[in-house]
Write a structure and sequence with these properties.
The protein has two domains: 211 residues, P-loop containing nucleotide triphosphate hydrolases (Rossmann fold, 3-Layer(aba) Sandwich), CATH 3.40.50; 92 residues, Helicase, Ruva Protein, domain 3 (Orthogonal Bundle). Strand 3 and strand 4 form a beta hairpin. The protein is globular, with a radius of gyration of 21 Å. It has a five-stranded parallel β-sheet. It is α/β, with parallel strands linked by helices. The termini are close together. It is 45% helix and 16% strand.
Length: 325
């Protein structure tokens, strides 16, 4: 795309510069996770949620805590455990002896950024307490609907290798996450950088050095700007063709749904806005396919036994689907 196709504008530039500062603030605590920070930013700007997966010790929780602090928003953390109840997340009615009546005590979900730590360690009944909050931005209790603060982002973490005492997230729950970000073990140089910081006195329990880089009004304005990013008919057809390609793949039992297609559109718009583009291009779509769809595709059992991965299926769909010019 040519320079003339970019969207300069002082307001847009101010917002993008503020978003860029978030990356710098997070980098004060987390080394070598620029891609994951971009994913969290895309989820926030597209009014979505992010599932962060990685083995123990790769700074998943630290990443989300640092990101929330760099946003300057209210944040809450819930450690998901087998005995956690739905009311512990969404809130519950509590009897007020003074007033002689039941009053609603808001749960930790009434915040801007909710860190759902190890979300797959709680049963589906409690996981489902987040469904209405993530989709409708509200909580219903005793016939009363209460709106959640805006902006609202759920960033959930889970461990892919330890299965004892865990519960797989239901498809309906997974579908509420815009992105699934995978955090891998860092390369040698990055790991040396992590140790160097700890040797110099860094502690993940103290994040005072991270300063808020965005005001809540800036986030809401950026979300509105993302909504205004356009998409041509050819690009929309390209997204649909990609979704249909996943459904036709021989190793796939359940391909990308129409909701998955709209999620890809939303993420591509956020990625395009971050780059200063007024409209999404096939490149923006291609960049978002794997993180947006990797948790929405179900493989056939025989394909899983043979070691086929969802990411490989998605890359194959990208390679086989004609790209609009």
């Amino acid at each position: 795309m040519t320079e003339s196709a970019q969207t300069p504008g002082p307001d847009a530039d101010h917002l993008r510069e503020a978003v860029a500062r978030v990356r710098g603030e997070v980098a004060k605590a987390v080394v070598g996770q620029d891609g994951a920070v971009s994913g969290l930013l895309i989820a926030l700007l597209a009014r979505g949620h992010a599932l962060v997966e990685g083995v123990p010790g790769v700074a998943k929780t630290l990443l989300v805590r640092s990101f929330a602090r760099a946003l300057g928003l209210d944040t809450a953390r819930v450690q998901f455990t087998p005995d956690l109840m739905p009311g512990d997340v969404s809130g519950s009615l509590v009897y007020d002896a003074t007033a002689g009546e039941f009053t609603f005590r808001p749960g930790p979900v009434f915040t801007n950024v909710l860190l759902a730590d190890e979300i797959n360690r709680t049963p589906p009944k409690t996981q489902s307490a987040l469904l209405e909050a993530m989709e409708e931005r509200q909580v219903s209790s005793d016939g009363v609907t209460r709106a959640l603060p805006e902006p609202f982002l759920v960033a959930a973490t889970q461990n892919p290798v330890e299965h004892e005492g865990t519960y797989s997230l239901p498809e309906a729950q997974l579908d509420r996450f815009l992105l699934k970000l995978t955090i891998s073990v860092p390369d040698r140089d990055t790991e040396i950088g992590v140790l160097r910081r700890h040797a110099e006195g860094f502690s993940p329990r103290h994040l005072e050095a991270i300063e808020p880089a965005l005001a809540p009004a800036d986030i809401l304005a950026a979300q509105s700007a993302v909504d205004a990013v356009s998409a041509t008919a050819d690009v929309l057809a390209y997204i649909v063709d990609l979704a249909r390609a996943t459904r036709d793949a021989p190793s796939v039992e359940l391909g990308a749904s129409p909701r998955a297609a709209t999620a890809l559109l939303a993420a591509a718009k956020a990625w395009a806005w971050l780059g200063g583009y007024p409209a999404i291009t096939p490149d923006h779509v291609q960049a978002m396919v794997v993180p947006v769809w990797r948790h929405r595709i179900q493989l056939r059992p025989d394909a899983e036994i043979e070691g086929v991965s969802v990411d490989a299926v998605l890359r194959s769909a990208l390679a086989q689907t004609p790209v609009p010019r």
